[in-house]
């Protein structure tokens, strides 16, 4: 397991060994949704907002 800093609150977020790049994880402190952008070293970025397409 590795850890990375939350880009929102700088808390340490645990990255499980089976986590993949582009997976979404949640910060335990501020509850932000974060995207795993790299595993070596582990880095996180704010997850992109999901927009609804309303079936278009």
From TrEMBL:
InterPro entries in the cross-refs: LysW
Pfam family, one: Zn_ribbon_LysW
Stored PANTHER family: LYSINE BIOSYNTHESIS PROTEIN-RELATED, LYSINE BIOSYNTHESIS PROTEIN-RELATED-RELATED
Alphabetized NCBIfam families for the sequence: lysW (TIGR01206)
Entry protein name: Lysine biosynthesis protein LysW
Organism for this UniProt entry: Streptomyces inhibens
